[in-house]
Amino acid sequence: MAEKNEADRQYNMLKEYLTGLESVAVAFSGGVDSAFLLKVAADVLGTDKVIAVTAVSSLFPEREQREAAEFCMQYGIKQIKVNHNEFEIKGFENNPPNRCYLCKRHLFEQIINAAEDHNIKHVADGSNMDDNGDYRPGMMAIKELNIKSPLQYAGLYKKDIRALSRELGLSTWNKPSLACLASRFAYGETISGEKLGMVDKAEQLLSDMSFSQLRVRIHGQENGLTARIEIMPEEFPRLMEEDNRKRINKYFREIGFSYVALDLAGYRMGNMNNAIKV
Questions:
Q1: Which residue, 49, 108, 147, 154, has fewest beta-carbon neighbours within 10 Å?
Q2: pLDDT computed for residue 222 by the predictor
Q3: Domain-by-domain residue ranges, the chain?
Q4: Helices 158-167 and 32-45 sit at what angle, rounded to 10 degrees?
Q5: Confidence at 277, pLDDT banded by 50, 70, 90
């Protein structure tokens, strides 16, 4: 009962905060957090005061773009798409430790412009309380540009957002956590369109094979690229079944990887940040 009361309090805080914004453009990827925020904003403010702004970019899988568009159509929310060419950003392809800052700054400047074009007063993102516990240089760009983070204001964690999304009947409530494909690269590893495509295809295969939370990290070597698979440890036995192991290895090699490895620690959010000292 206490947990339910706390969830209700946080939900009411969120709605009150959104009401005060009057109109809002939500940076919408189609993931758990931004979908929940977008739906609540539309419920509170009305669909004439809310728009979803989605980046069209090689950093986001095409399947996620489709699902984001379907979500907006389902709830009658206007979606604006902005073409985000990350390779126009100076230094991006070199993948420095502040890559996320450079990319977020560029993207949210585009979203702000889209909001102004549609007479929307504020821009909001789906950052939640869990985003405070990792190396997140992109959060600095959000603060600099005065982007609102309503889920953080309401003190909501990912587990809370999933629970509330389920109560609202949102299909996204149990969707795996997402992150842009650039997060699969070790800092200093050159990012290219070809490599992003390899990661996307590799993860799509694992998704099609019904592995739940997953990442395919990419590591460069002079003698070939290595794919390091992260899945939940309880799914290790299924991946190592003979037919599955051979299928994955064969396909990964066909799309350009020279080596295929399984990370024995399993899936970990922000794994590529381990080498960063903050």
A1: 49
A2: 65
A3: 2-174, 181-273
A4: 50
A5: very low
Q: What is the dihedral of CA 132, 136, 138, 143, to 10 degrees?
A: 30
CA distance 182 to 137: 14
The dihedral formed by the CA atoms of 39, 64, 149 and 165, expressed in degrees to the nearest 10: 40
Spatial distance between the Cα atoms of 154 and 27, rounded to a whole number of angstroms: 18
Give the C-alpha distances (Å, rounded to integers) separating 244 from 84, 226, 228: 36, 18, 16
- In the predicted model, what is the mean pLDDT of residues 178-184? 90
Give the span between the Cα atoms of 268 and 124, in whole angstroms: 27
| pLDDT classification of 2: cutoffs 50, 70, 90 | low
CATH for 2-174, options being 3.30.1330.30, 3.90.830.10, 3.40.50.620, 3.90.1150.10: 3.40.50.620
Q: ∠ CA(246), CA(247), CA(248), 5° rounding?
A: 95
The domain over range 181-273 is classified in CATH as 3.30.300: yes
Dist CA 216 CA 261 (whole Å): 10
245-262 pLDDT, tens digit per residue, is 999 999 999 999 999 999
**pTM of this structure:** 0.89
